Amino acid sequence: MPTYVYISNAEDGEIATYLLSPGGELASRGRTKAGAQVMPLAVSPDRRLLYAAVRSKPFSVHVFRVDPGSGALSPHSVSPLAEGFPYLSVDRTGRLLFGASYGGHLVSVNEVGADGTVAPEPRQVIPVGRSAHAILADRTNRFAYVPCLGTDQIFPFALDAGALRPRPPVQMKPGTGPRHLAFSNDNRFLFVLGELTGGVTTFALKEGVLAETSGAAMPTSLRPGAPRGPDAPPRERDKDVWAADIHLTPDGRFLYTSERTSSTLCAFRVDGASGRLEWLGATPTEKQPRGFAIDPAGRFLVASGEKSTTVSVHAIGKDGSLGAARQFPGGKGGNWVEIVSF
Q1: What is the pLDDT of residue 201?
Q2: Cβ 65 vs Cβ 48: under 8 Å
Q3: Is 154 exposed, middle or buried (0-12, 13-18, 19+ CB in 10 A)?
Q4: Which of 7, 21, 41, 180 has its CA 20 to 30 A from that of 72?
Q5: ∠ at Cα 31 (30, 36), nearest 5°?
């Protein structure tokens, strides 16, 4: 079963393709032009299409066909987007493309045609809290959630007949900076990463309603971070927590996050019954690791770094510990990682 890794390199304007071997080696399979500041990626449920958002004007989404035999990407279509999106996701049917805009404080919904083409006009553009940083449908495809870093809120939506229906927002602790999300395999829990604390908050899920149950801290000597952006007040940030991404292993037993200031990956053990997290440790990785992904077999974690030109592969131990980084040539501004197996 071949496994392919796709990494968007924002400064190069390209998507790099790799073959991941059973032993955890990355072999380059070429690069595909996308556009300046290509960043978030999303894969269709059938794994045959890759969506890539370009955050330079004109804002657009580039769709690529994925060749199951070689992993090669071929251009499919390009469609405009309502804003510059740091996060893209596809609903569980593959017929809706969601985007979250940090600068626009909004989310959008675009319909996806049967051939994978994204509609040129959004079906919905919905204002949310300040600095929306992600949007993801739950495993039932009946609800979607939007973390808003600047207002410390989660905006829940009912997903009905291809449209988002707003529900009352959920307030988190001030200074959390909710950024990215991950759902447990049984859809009973939602794990929310705080960019400004590096901690993870566990919410119980029931009929789309969130109830905070526990939290897990990241032991660190760094100080709590503060929101960033063109209108943020001046601040020395080299000692700030600056967490980025969050993913669970396929079996749901372990959860990992990335922290950019310390350039580390943080590991937690997951209690499947309660959703509680237990700190395991931190492992050095690529410089400023914005994005990472775990292969479908749960054996390897692949991380990119915005300030490095290499890519790291970490073996995942049976106890959830991460092996030392094995580095392979990368691109400039690596920020998003997707892994696909056939």
Answers
A1: 98
A2: yes
A3: buried
A4: 180
A5: 170
CB distance 12 to 333 below 8 Å: yes
Query: Over 90: is that where the pLDDT of 1 sits?
Result: no
Give whole-number Cα distances, 89 to 32, 79, 96, 248, in Å.
20, 15, 9, 17
- Above 90 in pLDDT, residue 15? yes
> In this structure, what token pair is assigned to residue 247?
């993913």
Count of beta carbons in the 10 Å neighbourhood of residue 233: 6
DSSP 272: T
Q: Rounded to an integer, what distance in angstroms lies between the CA atom of residue 194 and that of residue 191?
A: 10
Q: Where are the domains of the chain?
A: 3-341
Q: What is the C-alpha radius of gyration for the chain, rounded to an integer number of angstroms?
A: 18
Q: What is the pLDDT of residues 167-186, one digit of tens each?
A: 999 999 999 999 999 999 99
pLDDT band at 288 (very low <50, low <70, confident <90, very high): very high
Supply 149's token pair: 């870093």
Q: Look-up: residue for tokens 């969506």?
A: 51
Q: How buried is 6 (Cβ within 10 angstroms: 0-12 exposed, 13-18 middle, 19+ buried)?
A: buried
230 pLDDT more than 90: no
Please tell us whether the domain made up of 3-341 is placed in CATH 2.130.10.10: yes
d(CA 120, CA 241): 38
Q: What is the reported pLDDT for 97?
A: 98
